[in-house]
Structure formats: structure tokens, C-alpha cells
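C-alpha cells as discussed.
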């Protein structure tokens, strides 16, 4: 379960300096630094659950910004290939089926 998008702290001096440098270079500092950093951490978090083709599990990212924010598609694209749903009941059903296979 990932409760929030893992953006770097806004007061992190290194990340702030990188974002300012990206802005000065004509890029979007937020996307170039904060969103890219969050995408890496999301992919790593999901990858800890699913390591091989035979592994099964549910990655639940509870932050609604993944579905609603402009940068959500960028973050979703960083995740391993998965079957997405925004329906909590669908996720619960998947967990029930998975737990039945483990018993």
C-alpha cells in the first residue's frame, strides 16, 4: 500500500536548486525534478512486490492525484505493466482471489 505520491519535500534545498536550474533551462522544474523523482520511487515500490512473471499481488496507490492531476499519466507510465482499477471493490475481489490461491 502506497498512501501518497512520494514527492520530495518542497523545502529540500537540493531538489529546489535542481528545479530552479531546470526552470532556467526552459524546462518545467516540477516535472523535471519532483515528478521524475516521485515516478522513480513509485516504480521501485511496485517493483518490490512484483519481481518475477509468476509473482502476484496488489499494489494499492491511495493518492487520488494519480488519477486526477495533470502529472498523473506521467507517474502511471513509470509503473510496471499492471491492470489498473479505481474501484475499491474490484481491488478487494482481487485480494480475495489471491488469498484463496495462497491458502
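Sequence:
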Amino acid at each position: 500500500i502506497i498512501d501518497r505520491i512520494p514527492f520530495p519535500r518542497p523545502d529540500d534545498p537540493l531538489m529546489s536548486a535542481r528545479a530552479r536550474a531546470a526552470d532556467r533551462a526552459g524546462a518545467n522544474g516540477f516535472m523535471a525534478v519532483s515528478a521524475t523523482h516521485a515516478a522513480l520511487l513509485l516504480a521501485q515500490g511496485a517493483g518490490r512486490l512484483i519481481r518475477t512473471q509468476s509473482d502476484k499481488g496488489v499494489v494499492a496507490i491511495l493518492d487520488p492525484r494519480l488519477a486526477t492531476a495533470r502529472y498523473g499519466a506521467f507517474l502511471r507510465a513509470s509503473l510496471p505493466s499492471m491492470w489498473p482499477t479505481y474501484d475499491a471493490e474490484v481491488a478487494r475481489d482481487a485480494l480475495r482471489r489471491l488469498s484463496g490461491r495462497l491458502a
